[in-house]
Design goal:
- The protein is an alpha/beta fold.
- The protein has two domains: about 150 residues, 3-Layer(aba) Sandwich (Rossmann fold), CATH 3.40.50.1010; about 80 residues, LOTUS domain-like (Nucleotidyltransferase, domain 5, 2-Layer Sandwich), CATH 3.30.420.
- It contains ten helices and nine strands.
- The strands form two sheets. A six-stranded parallel beta sheet has the order 3-2-1-4-5-6, with helices on both faces. The chain has a three-stranded antiparallel beta sheet with strand order 7-9-8.
- β4, α5 and β5 form a beta-alpha-beta unit.
- The longest helix is centred in the middle third of the chain and has 14 residues.
Length: about 250
């Protein structure tokens, strides 16, 4: 991770009603890859028993609980409190980005508003997260790839087999398009990091870990359709394998 990234100041806001405590270790490790979590707050009605499992994690990870009573049945006061706090923090101009932890579409407009201000938004949620919220973020990470079991890191998730990866026409088309878009005129190699950035700009939810591979390079190698050149260790390059010519 680049030094500049480690200096980025982030606000981490967690919707306790739409997140589970078993992902918190992996989540905070992921956040550390984007910057420093200078604010960590979690919102919910702490008088209810359903948030009991969260309480053990708060002191351990220095997360500040924000109490929000449910004044009216059926109304999500937690979302409102979280949105108000996010806007207050935004106007302090102290942060480079926000991490919004929820699977609730109510935060779609908040994510868009923060990005309008020129700040980054990293979303975290379950697979059920509505697409509008996912697309409103710069990057969206599904929490099931973060390694919920302490003895089983996300890198040990079941890997999708090469034959199935090659059959995934959407994935192949996505990577081919990214390589084409990031290949200089007259060349056929694209920088690996630029490919990943290009894909993330279109699909914030794209993550090689969704396929069981810790890094994009590992996913591309497993597919067997691409060559990776590592002569420049800082900036490895990728191209589509050339089809073998017909024998004369």
């Amino acid at each position: 991770m680049a030094t500049n990234d480690s200096l980025k100041s982030l606000a981490v806001l967690i919707d306790a009603d739409n997140a589970t405590p078993d992902v918190i270790v992996g989540l905070l490790e992921e956040v550390a890859g984007y910057g420093t979590a200078n604010v960590k707050r979690i919102y919910g009605d702490w008088t209810t028993p359903n948030l009991g499992k969260w309480k053990a994690e708060l002191l351990k990870h220095s997360i500040q609980p924000i109490q929000q009573f449910r004044y009216t049945t059926g109304k999500n006061a937690t979302d409102s409190a979280m949105i108000i706090d996010a806007m207050d923090l935004l106007y302090t101009s102290r942060f480079s980005g926000f991490c919004i932890v929820s699977s609730d579409s109510d935060f779609t407009r908040l994510a868009s508003r923060i990005r309008e201000q020129g700040l980054s938004v990293y979303g975290f949620g379950e697979r059920k997260t509505p697409e509008p919220f996912v697309k409103a973020c710069d990057k969206f990470i599904y929490t099931d790839v973060l390694g919920q079991e302490p003895d089983k890191p996300s890198s040990q998730r079941t890997k999708v087999e090469a034959v199935d990866l090659r059959k995934d026409t959407k994935l192949v088309t996505l990577i081919d398009s990214a390589i084409k878009a990031r290949t200089p005129d007259g060349g056929d190699w694209a920088v690996l990091g630029a490919i990943g950035h290009h894909i993330s700009q279109q699909f914030p939810e794209f993550d090689s870990r969704n396929y069981g591979y810790a890094k994009l390079s590992g996913l591309l190698e497993a597919m067997g359709l691409y060559e990776i050149e590592r002569t420049d260790k800082q900036h490895p390059k990728v191209r589509r394998k050339k089809k073998a010519g017909k024998p004369k």
